[in-house]
Amino acid sequence: MKRKQIFFLLIPLLLLLASVSLSLSSEKDTTKESDEKKGYIGAATCQGCHETQYESYKKSIHSKKQVKGPAYKEACETCHGPGAKHVEKGGGRGVDIFDFGKKVDGTARAARCLTCHEETRHLANWSLSKHSIAGVSCNDCHSVHSPRDKNLKIDQPDLCYGCHMNIRMQMNKQSHHPVKEGRISCSNCHDPHGTFGDHMIKADTVNELCYTCHAEKRGPFLWEHAPVEENCLNCHNSHGSNHNKLLVRKPPQLCQSCHAENGTGHASNMYTAFETFNGAATGSKNRMFTRGCVNCHTNIHGSNSPASGQRFVR
Ligand code: HEC
Ligand code: HEC
Ligand code: HEC
Ligand code: HEC
Ligand code: HEC
Ligand code: HEC
Ligand code: HEC
Ligand code: HEC
Ligand code: HEC
Ligand code: HEC
Questions:
Q1: Is 310 in the pocket of ligand 9 (CB under 6 A)?
Q2: Which of 155, 261, 288, 313 could cross-link to 269 by cystine, CB 3.0-4.6 Å?
Q3: Range of the domain at 134
Q4: Is 206 in the pocket of ligand 7 (CB under 6 A)?
């Protein structure tokens, strides 16, 4: 009795399996046919003449993950487009193949990659990015035929310095963010694919960016120093400076650019030739003693000391 039941159950199951495998094989046949009509021929043919690129592609993430695209099911032609005509004519530079060359418009090159990468989180703002707008494209920074991390043509920061020579200069200044020491990289602060923030920084505002690594500067403070809350770059450079601690100017001039003598309770105004050189004669007018403002105003980013924190001296 039980055996019979199992047998009757098996029959429909077998029938189902048979029909599934039938429909699968017929699907395969039709895609193969339409592939040929559209001019796709498969990687094996390309390999015959482009062994080097074939090998490098094999080592790439695109191959390892067996990535299939909407345009074509696999390999070379997902990016280079259908290759039948190229092969018929015996190949050649620019012969009926999409070659990502410098002459090809940047947007058109990016479009090839974006057929799949539109969904990649980092690329959501690509079309708004300065790079995209300036015509810089994916393969100015990436090469699929490169075994490096993230398929980068060369590693950061040299990749970026290739076009941003002024930033290399800034990063070589006496005080600098430790990029050349390899402790952070450009892409810790910028997303080269674009962001909502200005200058493609990885946060909505400069301060939010700085807080991601300098959290202790966020506060909250009982006594806030207004320019700190407003923008760290009121006093600091982002890349490098010839003054200590990335400062835009050195104290006391930095402080005095905002704090005139009026209402400071002690001398904090600009040193003029008159005041410094006549100091001996006019004693009380010598401002030299207040030169190192931060020697006393140590908590310059804000203070939580109820007593005299208001003046950032503790
Ligand atoms: C057929 C779809 C497809 C196309 C076309 C495509 N990619 Fe990809 N790419 C992928 C997939 C899928 C991954 C793996 C993503 C993952 O693991 O999260 C990937 C990964 C990557 C990575 C990450 C590498 C790593 O080490 O993490 C880079 C960089 C990349 N692609 C660049 C490109 C560039 C540049 C182009 C155009 C020249 C391109 N891709 C075209 C699907 C595609
Ligand atoms: C994910 C996209 C992608 C895939 C897949 C891909 N390529 Fe490329 N290929 C590129 C890009 C982008 C370039 C431009 C190279 C550059 O800018 O560094 C390129 C360049 C080339 C070149 C020119 C070489 C040169 O040094 O200028 C050849 C030839 C080539 N690919 C063949 C192939 C072959 C063969 C395959 C399959 C085995 C393949 N590609 C798979 C994106 C791809
Ligand atoms: C019969 C040989 C042959 C076959 C097959 C072939 N190619 Fe080529 N291809 C060439 C030759 C030759 C060149 C010119 C290379 C050069 O001048 O360095 C070339 C150039 C290219 C270029 C442009 C390189 C450049 O620097 O401008 C790309 C991209 C390319 N082939 C991709 C493919 C792809 C993808 C396939 C498979 C669909 C393929 N080729 C199949 C012979 C072939
Ligand atoms: C100006 C240089 C530059 C351009 C242009 C560029 N990228 Fe990138 N891309 C990078 C760098 C640098 C990284 C590595 C970022 C990191 O390590 O945080 C990266 C990483 C990636 C990754 C891996 C992301 C991840 O989450 O791991 C993908 C995918 C990618 N890029 C695809 C693209 C595509 C597609 C384009 C064109 C639409 C493009 N990139 C244009 C520099 C660039
Ligand atoms: C600690 C964070 C940080 C790092 C690391 C960093 N940047 Fe910046 N970058 C910024 C901020 C903030 C701005 C916007 C304010 C400004 O102009 O200084 C900026 C502005 C820029 C600008 C536009 C303004 C200009 O001076 O041309 C470029 C280009 C730039 N960065 C490239 C780079 C490159 C390339 C690297 C790596 C060598 C890098 N940045 C590393 C934070 C950073
Ligand atoms: C192929 C050349 C090229 C490469 C490589 C390149 N950039 Fe750019 N970058 C440009 C161009 C062109 C612009 C737009 C013009 C400008 O603002 O200088 C730009 C703009 C920027 C800006 C915005 C500047 C602003 O004022 O808003 C930042 C930030 C930036 N790049 C960072 C990087 C980083 C980080 C890298 C390396 C991962 C990099 N770039 C690699 C060419 C390049
Ligand atoms: C990705 C992490 C990161 C971000 C974001 C970041 N920094 Fe830094 N910053 C560092 C590191 C690492 C150092 C080196 C600290 C050390 O040597 O102990 C540093 C050092 C500094 C120094 C001291 C420099 C010196 O010469 O001693 C200042 C000032 C500074 N950062 C300001 C900023 C400002 C302003 C921002 C926002 C524009 C910012 N940082 C964003 C990582 C970061
Ligand atoms: C009003 C000017 C001013 C502003 C605005 C400012 N700083 Fe500073 N910062 C200084 C001075 C002055 C020093 C040097 C202190 C010293 O030499 O003892 C300094 C030093 C630093 C240092 C290195 C020493 C330390 O305290 O860790 C970091 C990091 C730093 N600032 C981060 C920031 C961040 C992040 C912001 C924005 C939230 C910011 N600063 C805004 C004036 C300022
Ligand atoms: C970009 C302008 C700016 C710079 C640069 C600046 N400050 Fe300030 N500072 C202010 C403002 C605005 C206030 C708030 C004034 C108020 O509340 O009346 C303030 C408040 C203060 C106070 C508290 C004064 C009070 O009346 O409560 C002290 C002390 C102070 N700053 C010291 C410094 C020192 C020391 C430096 C240099 C390291 C400096 N500031 C750099 C703008 C600046
Ligand atoms: C020898 C220590 C010392 C030095 C150096 C110093 N200050 Fe002060 N500063 C103080 C003290 C203490 C107070 C608080 C005075 C009070 O509460 O009456 C103060 C108060 C201030 C105030 C607020 C004054 C008010 O009336 O509200 C400002 C602004 C200020 N200092 C700026 C500066 C600047 C700018 C420099 C550098 C040019 C500087 N200080 C150098 C100790 C110093």
A1: yes
A2: 261
A3: 106-202
A4: yes
